Amino acid sequence: MAARQASSTPMLITGIGALYVGQSVIGGMTWTGLPALMRTAGVSLDQIGMVSLIALPWVLKFLWSPLVERYRLPASGRNRSGTIILIGGLVSVGSLLAVGLMDPARALPIFLLLTLVAFAAATVDIACDGFAVQSLAQHHHGLANAAQVGGAYLGSAIGGGLFLALADLWGWPVATWSMAVVLVLLGMPFLLFVSPRLPHEERTHSPSLRAALSRPDLRRGLGLSAIYAFSQKVALGMTGTFLVDQGLDLATIGLTNGVGSLFVGFGVALAAGLLVRRLGTGMVMILALVLQGLALAGFAAASYTNGFPHVLLMTMTVFSGSAVLALGFVGLYAQFMHWSDPRQAGVDFTLFQCMDALVSILGGMAAGQMAHHLGYTPFFALAAFIAFAAVPAVAALVRISPKKLTTEEPRPA
User: Fold this and answer.
1) Can you give the CATH number for the domain in which 56 is found?
2) How far apart are CA 411 and CA 413, in angstroms?
3) 68 vs 263, more confident
4) Contact 20, 124 (CB under 8 A)
5) What is the pTM of this model?
């Protein structure tokens, strides 16, 4: 497509990757940093629990994705991805500047403004995903998703870690405004070096949910998203509680998660991009499922024996929650890109992501109930079985060839 020739691949991936980091800065600040700061300001736990509602725009963004895509890809004219990203960025930065003026103990106005930020970031994500699919050749999809997943880990570390450190040193306003500055800097590569080079094009397709759901690859992708998200993430929320019950203190658990996210998850995500190019998306996803099954079986054994050293438990947590998860989701998101129609990629990719988010939420709720009623040992054993059982389903959905051990190229719908 013409968009592919407008900028070099390294510049495209740099610009897109920086945007993904920025979106995760917002997520890390909202779901990790904000609750901790509000608690220190004396906000009650039931009010802090409302933070989860800020995630709703990310679950529901498929509803307005066709509108975004129709604006982004007009019948005649330049691709408007840069305009959407600029407007969304201005809304996010302006809202964060306003939040910095507020007392963190004032929960409701902060929640409302951060929900607006989430809406803007989710809308930018639609445009960013659509642009990535449309602009990058298929053999670069693994690298693009390495930037996406790796950017998520890096952004979460900035928004959840650096934000809290700045708040502790210089206070809430400086920390919040610093995150606004970070967003501006992360948006610059795309807006300055990618967006201005987009060519004028003529288009005949009108993006819509109906067009998306009529495609077999889209429906297949929704099934893959549900199966893969559940099998990889069902035990994710229980590993932290398991470590607490095994006697690890919160500081150690926090350090483990921080190191895992910033170094292991980010590094594995970058390596996974290269692995996708060599093995294909299907083999990378299956490798991650097998490794996750082994890790969860290890947690079941640790629960059963109740004698694993803390260092080993921490290593298992980083391996399962950061390394394996990053590996698998680079492969999954690259497959989503393969199955997205470039004429309305923002709609298609958004549907895949929303299914992932919905199943992750429902799976997390189910995991709590299962662990409560079954106990850790049966729960982790069941989670390991689910990961192994997902292997043939994933192989069938991505059409793994037993001879070539590669993923079949997507066919036009």
Assistant:
1) 1.20.1250.20
2) 6
3) 68
4) no
5) 0.88
